[in-house]
Amino acid sequence: MSKTNPGNYFEDFTLGQVIEHATPRTITEGDRALYTALYPTRFAIPSSAEFAASVGLDPHPVEELIGFHVAFGKTVPDVSLNAVANLGYAECRFHRPVVPGDTLRTSSEVIGLKQNSNGKTGVVYVRSTATNQRGEVAIDWARWVMVHKRDQDAPAPETVVPELTDAVAAEDLVIPDGLDFTGYDFAAAGEPHRWDDYEVGEKIDHVDGVTLTDPEHMLATRLWQNTAKVHFNTEARPDGTRLVYGGHVISMARALSFNGLANAQLIAAINAGAHTAPALAGDTVYAWSEVLDKADVDAPGVGALRLRLVATKGRDESMMLRTEDGKYAEGVLLDLDYWALAPQA
Amino acid sequence: MSKTNPGNYFEDFTLGQVIEHATPRTITEGDRALYTALYPTRFAIPSSAEFAASVGLDPHPVEELIGFHVAFGKTVPDVSLNAVANLGYAECRFHRPVVPGDTLRTSSEVIGLKQNSNGKTGVVYVRSTATNQRGEVAIDWARWVMVHKRDQDAPAPETVVPELTDAVAAEDLVIPDGLDFTGYDFAAAGEPHRWDDYEVGEKIDHVDGVTLTDPEHMLATRLWQNTAKVHFNTEARPDGTRLVYGGHVISMARALSFNGLANAQLIAAINAGAHTAPALAGDTVYAWSEVLDKADVDAPGVGALRLRLVATKGRDESMMLRTEDGKYAEGVLLDLDYWALAPQA
Amino acid sequence: MSKTNPGNYFEDFTLGQVIEHATPRTITEGDRALYTALYPTRFAIPSSAEFAASVGLDPHPVEELIGFHVAFGKTVPDVSLNAVANLGYAECRFHRPVVPGDTLRTSSEVIGLKQNSNGKTGVVYVRSTATNQRGEVAIDWARWVMVHKRDQDAPAPETVVPELTDAVAAEDLVIPDGLDFTGYDFAAAGEPHRWDDYEVGEKIDHVDGVTLTDPEHMLATRLWQNTAKVHFNTEARPDGTRLVYGGHVISMARALSFNGLANAQLIAAINAGAHTAPALAGDTVYAWSEVLDKADVDAPGVGALRLRLVATKGRDESMMLRTEDGKYAEGVLLDLDYWALAPQA
């Protein structure tokens, strides 16, 4: 019998089931350097240990998306190896900064199941939790994927669809212990704009673009130990292209957003994310943001900005998300809704 | 007179000669991160400091092949710059884990010489030893290469061909101090299969494939400070291709073997290796393994598996090593014979 | 109003103005590993913590050009985002080794201004200083760039052109505290040639070549947080090529110069640098050096070599810098004049 991982099929999941994902992964300064090499990030907190300490963060946190990609990558072999589609995620909260030396492991609980009417596939809802070496929660999130059935004649489970919020409520955001933006150094951070300067509804064209290459997205995706075949193997897709991991586009867009959102320093939550079109090597990725909401939070000098981050293939100075018929506009690759923490004044 | 390194020719080697190779190299967490980005490795020991400590390995070892590639790379400028062919290696043992902060240096002793009958080339046998900053042996191995003569009229040395074993005997394997697999966490490691579950003769198709690119193999090869021209310079080969460093294929295949051999955690020895065909960018590398032998070793819960690791260009589900005439089957890139350590039960 | 950085135009600069550049950046072991992966460097001091300590350098310095690229990259958004041309740099001195854990920040003072006669552009001279987390100077240098005017009718400032030296005088070189080459291990360093063996006027062909790729130069340029569009975006230049960052060519040539200058270990100063032609992916970069001067310095066993480092597209064994009409010879990419420190005898 084969010793290789066949992945789980729809009927392998049961409500309440808890899956411990392999393999735990220790975060290092090497991850920080590679992240800097892969994405044009210049956010002052992950870039500078001195800056981080000056706002109360010591030891020196890595970019939040490093933790997210690593934690998320762990779930792939068990949850989405046989996925037809990644349908969405929600309620992702960053509970504490991840720092070099932290070892992350991820487990998932099945919180919903719904067989599709065609009898061939079903939707699996999981809540995943990444914990560090002290057993503290680092990141958690909900996610739902459409998965093949192994046997179409297998009986359908009772349908349970979890209630998930559209967005993490501002009062549920976890603010890192000790975070204090009252002495924030705007010159060092790169832009003068503070939380006060952003208005709900405001859009920001981040101007810069980066043309994707295959070696770079493969390096990134492996770094997160995400081993989905389509990212690496030109024989895995009929047209011989390698699909760019969606997280690569998230990180690219987030880094590009520095130009206009340099002070939206820390990601506190991801409310929702849609990968609306495939990205491939040769595509030039641009980004724009929209301020969706603002909220006070309970930390000195800190405010929360709810932002829509949109990645596009080719620059769209009109910053159009959807066409009149409600579909995503051509060129939109990513529609990400998240909360960031910024200096208030 | 030129100050650049002309490399050594056959007549520059003498029996018993010891060559101190430049330059020592300190291993860091950056190497671990880059290795993870370059190869789809997920073995729990190098991935997680917590997992490593739980099996008795603290500080946190890096992948054994990092040490091997670095140590091997040192020998290239002195031993194989003028090589016609790398003929083989044998008796490679890993004496202790390499951890960040270790500085490796390599020296080689000439243990055999044999001029070829054409008078133009000869075979040089060396035993190379990599030591750490405390002078302890980290890795040693024997290797033989065919090297050009500078002067065809130079007299042939006495022929001495060392006796090298086909495989390191199980009782000669060095088990890392403190290694203890009795509390091994199979869920964290990613697969349930233990040493007991593998049978001699069993073959495992590792399923996944990775398409090679030039930037990636160049990054890897430079990381090991291996500067052989053919890997980097499109003007160095008539067809303008860059030859992929054989060690890149070893690491790729080893990482792919996680899928089916996740618990073959530590490489204890390399018995033999043949690079049977060149690998180039665009090739999609797959791997399969065969269990050649099993042995008890003197450490709690630890068993040794002798494995043949075969890398192929394109997937060969038939897992055929050689054709009926004894030649390597088409598509075979690498035939590596090694010992790994696995949890026994 | 746009929140993104429009960059500074000629009339935004005033004599004596001091600009604090964003964002500070902490150097890590990850940077060392990536540098090793990106360039074929084998210099013993940055490669080996043991070797570095043996010549008095502990903690373990990173390659000087890591500090230079990071410090320089900081100035791009403020100084050269609207540059027509980078005209030159001078008087760059390395005041102390940069080690992992150091956080560099850069500020620039405007030391000269000269509007061009066309009224459309002007030359801005700045002296930039990178300091570490203790406020100590790590690197400083002068640089001049031609920048667009925003408004051609804006009045011209008084012309001030600073006096800059052709080369840092040997007595002004800063020697790292504690540097002592009296016990220098030439075998470990890789070559027997010492300061005494080099003669003024001597040229060295470094033999080896590396073919450039887009992913590699983008990884490098991002690592230094240099975000000039032309390096990353195929839509930023009419021909769809990505221009290779000049610093990538400097580092490549410097690394190639190991073969013949392995003991020119530490860069103490950069006297001048000209990027004489664009470099693109597919170009094969070679290097040669010329000894311009030699000087004693005040440290045990240490001598200074003033070197011209020339990078070429394609190998030029004749090592011709300029044609008879005084122009740079075809294929010359870089003409860099620097001081290195070598063991004297």
UniProtKB/TrEMBL annotation, chains A, B, C:
CDD domains: FkbR2. InterPro entries: HotDog_dom_sf, MC_hydratase, MCH/BMMD, Thiol_ester_hydratase_Rv0216. Pfam families: MC_hydratase. GO terms for molecular function: lyase activity. It comes from the Bacteria. SUPFAM superfamilies: Thioesterase/thiol ester dehydrase-isomerase (SSF54637). PANTHER family: BETA-METHYLMALYL-COA DEHYDRATASE (PTHR43664:SF1), MONOAMINE OXIDASE-RELATED (PTHR43664). This is MaoC family dehydratase.
